[in-house]
Amino acid sequence: MLFQIYGENAGYQLLGWLLVFAGLIVVNELSRRTKKGGIFFFLLLPAGLTVYFISIYVGAAMGAEWALNNPTYVHMNSWFHYAKLYAATAGCIGFMMLKYKWGIAKNDWFKVFPFAIVAINILIAVGSDFESGIRGALALAETGDRWWLSSENVWLYGGWWNWVNGIAGILNIFCMTGWWGIYTSKKQQDMLWPDMTFLYIIAYDLWNFEYTYNNLPTHAWYCGLALLLAPTFANALWNKGGWIQNRANTLALWCMFAQVFPLFQDASVFSTLPILYTDGVMDAAVRPTSADPTMQGVIAILALAANVIVLAIIIKRSLEQKKNPYKNEIFTDQRDFQLAMARAENN
Fold first, then answer.
1. Are 197 and 115 in contact (CB under 8 A)?
2. Transmembrane segments in this chain: where (predicted)?
3. Are 191 and 98 in contact (CB under 8 A)?
4. How far apart are the first and last CA of the chain?
5. DSSP helix/strand/coil, 63
6. How far is CA 91 from CA 43, 51, 81, 114, 295, in A?
7. How far is it, in rounded angstroms, from Cα 94 to Cα 105?
8. Is pTM, for the whole model, over 0.90?
9. Residue 115 DSSP class
10. Which of 36, 178, 265, 317 gives 195 a disulfide partner, CB atoms 3.0 to 4.6 angstroms apart?
11. In a 3-state reduction of DSSP, which class is residue 252?
12. Closest by alpha carbon to 36, among 80, 121, 98, 100?
């Protein structure tokens, strides 16, 4: 088992997961199908939230109680959350530019943007993984265990699994092929990346889940499982080739929700902890007495293995086809690729 789903709140935890999973799918559909939907969710809404965030920090700097006690200020103040929110939103905007051919996105060189923004997002997470690994090592030297308290008052358990998963994340960047193979679906609902097939999606999902499990453990039930499975589900059933757009959209929308309503995950009947916390609770005021990092290690190894295998397949195919896998598409014989291209040509 990965999470503590039992007791009187188990029903709420499962309901919360279903609500997040279904909600992300619905909002993604609303945001991707029309220009108005995309403009509202990825331009107007982030602009309004930026004003809100700045107001909170200005108020906190002035000592205002309403700001100092604001859940966003108390629970979501790390550099990572803001970096992730705005990097994901930038990706959504860039993807809209590509599918609607706005401005500089009309130029062929702009097709490399999806690779660049995804790589940036991955590196942000890799940096956070390495940070936790370092802090865990420092805590071990100082206190005899690996627990360290984040700026958001969450006890994290840093260890070798952070380093292994960070390496998997770096490899995942090199598993993105066909950088210039970016298309628009005929109805202009989606930016398509056909060479990003199920192989990459599996490797990415394993790596990213482990990232959340390591570094956002109190949120991983939602931002790990529900958030990752929503775009994968859509890509598998009705949106072939649009996975990376689905991923960016759902990530940005989830970050906005979590940044404004952090108590949904942190202090409600929907809160769900991983098995790491063998004390059964996560109380910032009390240092945990023990930990069970078994699954952190297992998933880190699986993530690294998956990315090594996918990268090996890419190297093998590129040699056989005598192609540069980044300048050219190498999965053209795969069903995923062909279905995505059919969408570019027919719908």
1. no
2. 12-31, 38-59, 79-98, 110-128, 160-179, 191-207, 219-239, 251-277, 297-315
3. yes
4. 41
5. coil
6. 12, 20, 15, 7, 31
7. 8
8. yes
9. H
10. 178
11. helix
12. 100
Strands 147-149, 183-184: pairing is unpaired
- 3-class SS of residue 334: coil
Contact 190, 92 (CB under 8 A): no
- The Cα–Cα gap between 128 and 87 comes to 15
Q: Which of 193, 184, 187 minimizes the C-alpha distance to 248?
A: 193
Amino acid identity of 262?
P
Dist CA 237 CA 201 (whole Å): 14
pLDDT of residue 78: 83
Query: Is residue 133 a contact partner of residue 162, using CB atoms and an 8 Å limit?
Result: yes
Contact (Cβ atoms closer than 8 angstroms) between residue 249 and residue 32: yes
Full DSSP string of 279-296: TS---TTS--S----HHH
Contact 192, 241 (CB under 8 A): yes
If you search the block for the tokens 């370092």, which residue do you land on?
Answer: 134
Q: Which two tokens stand for residue 302?
A: 């699986």
222, 39 contact by CB (below 8 A): no
Query: Looking at residue 120, what is its pLDDT?
Result: 93
pLDDT for the residue 186: 84
Q: If the chain, 347 residues long, is cut into consecutive pieces of 10 residues, what is the mean pLDDT of each piece? A: 93 97 97 95 97 96 94 87 91 95 94 95 95 98 96 94 98 97 90 96 98 96 97 94 96 95 94 96 94 98 98 98 97 95 81
Question: Which amino acid makes up residue 60?
Answer: A
Angle CA(273)–CA(274)–CA(275) in degrees, nearest 5?
A: 120
CA torsion 14-241-124-13 (nearest 10°) is: 0
Give me the residue label for tokens 């397949």: 313
